[in-house]
Amino acid sequence: MNAKKILRTFLLILAFATSAAADNPLAADNGLNQAQQATADKAIEKAVKKQDELKQKINQNVLDGFNEVKKAIRLLEQTDKIRQAIAALEAATGKFDIALAAKPELGLVSIDSSVNIFELITDWEMVENTTEQALDLLRDHQVQAALKLLLPLQDELVTTTTYLPMATYPDTIKLAAAALVNGKTDKARQILTQGLTSFVVSESVIPLPLLRAEAFLLEAGELEKDKQKDQTLDLLNAAEDQVQLAIALGYTNEDSAPYEALVSQIKSLRWAVKGPNAVERLYGELKKSLADLIHLEAKPQVSAPQK
What we know:
Blueprint: E1 6-10, H1 11-19, H2 34-55, H3 60-75, H4 82-102, E2 108-119, H5 124-139, H6 143-150, E3 156-165, H7 169-181, H8 185-196, E4 200-207, H9 208-225, H10 229-248, H11 257-274, H12 280-297, E5 301-303
Parallel strand pairs: 1-2
Antiparallel strand pairs: 2-3, 3-4, 4-5
């Protein structure tokens, strides 16, 4: 993983370093053995790589056009750079026109994306204990103490994407350029600033416990073919624990249909692995249920444009 692109925060270790003396009940142990931890790490790296690949689909002409707009905004900070600012805005308009000519139906176009990982090193029982302690503190109106316990409880991969609205933004840039040409510099600055508020920000959160559970199930499916039943059962138990961790952290709930199907199938699969029955069909159903659950909980949250 690229350190410049990814902020990997081991929140639990950080919590211990700063508040061990404050009776923090969390423990830096997620219950995974070395092999399972390696599997989990690979799954996270794969998810990050997938997000990076999506960034490659950015429309280059739109991005180049926006970079010209940013250049113009910087130039307008200097009173003797008005002509250069006009040229930059005209260049931006040209880039936007090329993009729209190639694809007139362009709407929201991604111009920036970042991936942040917040990895929690703990298990579901410790999370439940921590939330109970936080509730007790809140009942006593000790809000700040409760926050210290609750704020580290993140175990997720967050992708934040900024979109430029091609239906309106190119016209905004033309208006700003016209204002500059007519000597209305302040008006141009106002138009450019207002145009930035039309951008849309989307945040997609993938719960890492569900990502780990999926990885464990995939590996368990491979091991079963070799009849490595003990390892398979360990992986199934680890997957179930990760699903419980997702529930404890509030990423999903026990009432959802995908969760109920998932738990039922894990139990059936565990029983089948211990016996002589074939389990390929059960693995297929289990993976689908987990994939449905991840998809359900990772829906992007979109921030509407500011007015």
